[in-house]
Amino acid sequence: MTTAREAEFGDYQTPPELAAAVCRLLVRRGVNPASVVEPTCGSGNFVLAAVDRFPKATGLAVELH
């Protein structure tokens, strides 16, 4: 079944909890980016989680729709 969010963007949107978990894993592995780019960001869950976890990073999110 397609949710309203999937129908809106035409694809799967990463849940915020998963995006936050990925960013926590990156922190544990010593990743400290200066910038974060999320092409085709949809609702932007990854870039939002990244700028939360990496506050000194510059975030850029692009969505064509």
Description:
With 65 residues, the protein is of the alpha+beta class. 43% of the residues lie in helices and 15% in strands. It is built from 3 helices and 2 strands; from the N terminus they run H-H-E-H-E. The protein has helices at residues 4-9, 16-28, 45-53; strands at residues 35-39, 58-62. Strands 1-2 form a two-stranded parallel sheet. Strand 1, helix 3 and strand 2 (58-62) form a beta-alpha-beta unit. Helix 2 (16-28) packs parallel to helix 3 (45-53). The radius of gyration is 13 Å and the shape is flat.
Shape: flat
Backbone CA Rg: 13 Å
Helix fraction bin: 40-55%
Strand share of the residues? 15-25%
User: Can you tell me the residue ranges where pLDDT is under 50 for at least 5 consecutive residues?
Assistant: none
